[in-house]
Amino acid sequence: MAKAYEKIADDLRQLIRQGEELKPGDRLPAETVLADRYRYSVPTIRQALGVLQAEGLIEKRHGRGNFVRMPRRLVQRTNERHQWEKDRAKATEAERRSTGATEHDTGLGVDDLIFSAEYQETHADEGLAGVFGVPTGTPLVERVYRTRYRVEDAPFNVARSYLVRDVVAPNPDLLDAACEPWPGGTQAQLHTLGIELDRIVETVSARPPTVEETEELGLTGGVAVMTLRKVSIDVDGRVVEVSDVVLPGDRTELTFTTRLARW
Q: Which residue segments constitute the domains of the chain, with CATH numbers given?
């Protein structure tokens, strides 16, 4: 049986989704007013509001009250995106420049997005060395990517990608952040080295965000993040890229389609 705060949260949730009485940007009635309306104590009201805040439907502004959040652009990420990227790796540069993976996942255009990339050299710790199958301390190229919708103030995610430096060094452009955004993304970059991917293994988990992630991703209290580790393996069975992506749980949808062999 639903508890009182859950019933109150559900009623407010429906009002927000209907968008008539409570629209994006509107301030909710004061907690005391809601307590009178629902005939429950203020602590119960706060529990209900905490549920909605955790769902990303409302945000609490210090000294001003609770407000209906402006809906964030939804990112719909499917595992079929990898074949889409592979097919585009051999396309013309003009075709590759016309759209990228973020546009694919959000339905936005190139001009709707603000992109940034940071490169630095680092060294494989024990964990990354084990994934790549290289000695601890092997030089790596660490790339950090952020892309946001032009009308929003937080990126869709923060992606931290690693490449073995000696593997990509034959193409100096792959060591230079000034060459970003690279038309066609990482698979197109690897294609310049004659590297073809055979498979990508993705592992997803969820956890509370760090303080830094909460600030950078614009998360409200209680919203979790999903962490995705993407391991790219070439046709020779060699791991050629490892990427750790932090995705905000309130505006990311992951879809996995599994093709099954017929009997």
A: 4-68 (1.10.10.10), 75-255 (3.40.1410.10)
